[in-house]
Structures are given as structure tokens and as C-alpha cells.
Design goal:
The chain is mainly α. It has one domain. The protein has five helices and two strands; from the N terminus they run αααββαα. The chain has a two-stranded antiparallel sheet with strand order 1-2. The chain is flat and about 60 Å long. The N and C termini lie far apart (about 45 Å).
Length: about 130
């Protein structure tokens, strides 16, 4: 759910910072492209929220197999799935934490990025 929130650009997550920075930067030069991109972002958000809804509230389908004569039974291997390991939990938590930190305090990354952006602007201006 947190990955989906970051992906669709909800404020407070890193996806919002990335999307709004690019849209604001491109607005003056390419307003039509920004409108098209904004419409695409709305569509992506709608499909992402639909996928979340189906994942949590939709009918189960991946653990079911069809047998002969139209009968349906649970896949026997379905219950043998292993839980995630501690290392996987730690990795997921670190990624979620980083997503929230960058969303709340984007200056951490922007301070490192801006010198390269300024150098590219200088080169483009013929400096």
C-alpha cells in the first residue's frame, strides 16, 4: 500500500516530490506536455487504486485450480508458501522509511542533485 501511495504521488511520499518537481520545471517550456502528463498521472492513480481494491477486496483466484467436471478446489501447494524472512522485512522497512524521508524532507537528495543540474544549465547556455 505504501509503494502504491508513493507511486501515484500522494504528498508526503517521494513520488510526489519527483512528479511535482518535474511538472513545475516543464510547465513554462511545455505546458501541453504537462497537461498530457497530468492526465496520465490521474489514469495511473485510478488503475493503481483499482488494483489495490481488487487485491484486498476482490475474489481469490491465484490459489485456486479447476478440476474436471467443473469442480473447483484449492491448490494443494497453496498452504506450503513460506512467510517472508526477517531480512526481507528489514529491506522492505528500509525502503518504506527512505520513501517517507525523501517525501517529507526532499532537500536531502536535492542538495546532492542541484550541482549537477546547475552544471548542465551552464553547459546548455553556452558557458
Amino acid at each position: 500500500v505504501i509503494a502504491a501511495a508513493a507511486s501515484i504521488g500522494i504528498p508526503g511520499f517521494s513520488g510526489f516530490v519527483a512528479e511535482i518537481t518535474i511538472l513545475i520545471g516543464a510547465w513554462k517550456a511545455y505546458p501541453l506536455a504537462v497537461w498530457i502528463t497530468g492526465a496520465g498521472m490521474v489514469l495511473v492513480a485510478a488503475f493503481t487504486l483499482r488494483a489495490l481494491k481488487q487485491s484486498f477486496f476482490g475474489e481469490a483466484g491465484s490459489g485456486v485450480v479447476r478440476l474436471q467436471e467443473g469442480r473447483v478446489a484449492l491448490d494443494p501447494d497453496w498452504n506450503e508458501q513460506q512467510s517472508i524472512t526477517a531480512a526481507e522485512k528489514i529491506g522492505a522497512c528500509l525502503l518504506m522509511f527512505a520513501t517517507l524521508v525523501v517525501g517529507v524532507y526532499p532537500k536531502l537528495l536535492l542538495d546532492r542533485i542541484m550541482p549537477a543540474v546547475e552544471a548542465m544549465r551552464f553547459l546548455k547556455s553556452g558557458g
